[in-house]
Amino acid sequence: MKYLFLFLLVSHIVSAQSLSKPEMGVIATVKKQMPETEAFLGKVVNINSGTLNKEGVRTVGKLMSDEFDKLGFKTEWVTLPDSLNRAGHLVATRQGKKGKKLFLIGHLDTVFEKSLPMDPFTRVNDSTASGQGVADMKGGDVVVIAALKALNAQKLLDDTSITIYFTGDEESSAGPESRRDFIERAKKCDIALAFETAQGLSSVTTGRRGSSGWTLNVKARTGHSSRIFSDLGYGAIYEAVRILNEFRRTLGQEQYLTFNPGLIVGGSEVHYDEKTAKAETIGKTNIVAGTALVKGDLRFLTEAQKENARTKMREIVDKSLPLTKATISFVDGIPGMEPSAANDELRKQVDKLSRDMGLGPVSAFDPGARGAGDVSFVAQYMPCLDGLGASGKGAHSIEETMNTKEFPLLIQRAALYIYRLTR
């Protein structure tokens, strides 16, 4: 036990010597501010801000905007056309001449719409807090705010160039028009840092998969079920099943590629409502199905992987069973964030910082284990890093939690990383 104590003491002294006096001051400030930081987190978690709850998203945005105002940022609300049915985005900026120009990314919305039961912020125990969006990603937004507050208290934000962009529809994007301003502002910066959920202290995200959608429509001859396999052919449902199974057989083992058929309906008639994502079908067991509809998503790491998959899926669709005709269409969503040497260089910087803080090494998180995110929209223009927010488990579920022991350490690391990049 005596030797363990001496080892920990020496490790602390060595790590402390690796940090500058201003950096030690930032860490002390983060620790001092933690009660108010956690209180603010609880406040925003307790406001429902499901993507379609525009009032809730704006309310959370106003609370965060007020915090940025206090820090000397210029804040504005980016409105979107009414036709998109989204609340808009919060932007906070400051211009200076020191270091890199940073683009910090978060989002105000959650997957929990107002129609769902409210799960308030709750301290489960000394290491866990729960609540809607507590980790994904109100905890990440608060990491940004608390880190900047600590830097500001130490006069370390002076003459820096930082743009903070918290979107209002990350969980259900309104499409390219909703990200036009986001991309244009990012292009004026040098580095993008995104504060989606961290996978603990030992990894960050240098690459993440993109997401797009596809729709399969199948038409076939219909009539009495006794004539299936003969003069009526195979019907629409058999053809849909053939295609889906061939997708799985041909593409199902490719690394980083997934394609999920999330909805399938078939029968004599099919009606699908895009706005409500609801389908209705009419059919009888003694009638060969004349139509089938399948809707799914396609996730990929690179644009080349996406296009190759689409080509193979089209080829499979074209090989129709007798007397059936299928078509497939694709719609782009969020691009992939391809791992790059520039992104890994950012990871190496975080790795050094983490070691300097005595927190240990930082590796690149498996890109196949992450979904799509806003950072991917700007990944082609600059080096990017993600997974810098709060750590937790159970995102997008009633079991979502945040690790409260790692929370202050992640704030400290974020603050010091911003400090080092802006020197």
UniProtKB/TrEMBL annotation:
The UniProt entry's coiled-coil ranges are: none
Pfam families attached to this UniProt entry:
M20_dimer, Peptidase_M20
- What is the recorded name of this protein? M20/M25/M40 family metallo-hydrolase
Keyword set includes GTP-binding: no
Provide the species name.
Spirosoma flavum
**Domain of life where this protein originates:** Bacteria
Domain Peptidase M20 dimerisation residues, every copy: 206-322
From the UniProt annotation, give the residues forming the signal peptide. Answer: 1-16
Query: What InterPro entries does the annotation carry?
Result: Bact_exopeptidase_dim_dom, Peptidase_M20, Peptidase_M20_dimer, Peptidase_M20A
Keywords on record: Hydrolase, Metal-binding, Signal
